């Protein structure tokens, strides 16, 4: 049981590290600082690798506990295990605490990552809008001005302004 508590504690710490990185990412995404974003993403990948290794270890420990208790590992939940520890209140309390901490950390990571995903999507839509604006400026109609040799001397309509001016 101590192994499970230890692994869950380590896993919750790593999720808290991941949460910190995700929160650092939010202002970087808003500012559009791609180099910093890439650096934070690399750090996140390292933390996710550690979380995956801890998750494998947690599954191994949980399988061992299920076998000792003669329970089906597929149906046994951590909350069930906490309930079964009524006769050992100290371990029950430790396991419940670490379970709650891990659950809260995972919830917060999901929430912040969801917000970051929305910000990134908005940034991509803005880039697409800018690209479409630039493309449409290149295909703007010309004025029908001709010189004596019947050559078109017209300019593209709207090209003189140099793009969108938010100060108008």
Tell me what you see in this structure.
With 168 residues, this protein is mostly helical. It has one domain (2-138): Methane Monooxygenase Hydroxylase, Chain G, domain 1 (Up-down Bundle), CATH 1.20.58. 73% of the residues lie in helices and 0% in strands. The protein contains 4 helices and no strands. Helix 3 runs antiparallel to helix 4. The chain starts with a helix and ends in a 30-residue tail after the last helix. The model has no long low-confidence stretch (mean pLDDT 87). This is Flagellar protein FlgN. InterPro entries: FlgN-like, FlgN-like_sf. Keywords: Bacterial flagellum biogenesis, Cell projection, Cilium, Flagellum. It comes from Parablautia intestinalis. Pfam families: FlgN.
Order of helices and strands: HHHH
Give me the CATH superfamily: FlgN-like
Q: Can you identify the CATH class? A: Mainly Alpha
Any guess at the CATH architecture?
Up-down Bundle
Instruction: Please give the largest β-sheet.
Output: none
Percentage of residues assigned to helices? over 70%
What structural class results from the helix and strand content? mainly alpha
Residue ranges: pLDDT <50 for 5 or more in a row?
none
Whole-number total of structural domains: 1
Instruction: Indicate the multimeric state.
Output: single chain
Number of helices: 4
- Classify the fold: give the CATH topology: Methane Monooxygenase Hydroxylase, Chain G, domain 1
- Total beta-strand segments: 0
Average pLDDT, rounded to a whole number, is 87
Principal-axis shape: rod-shaped
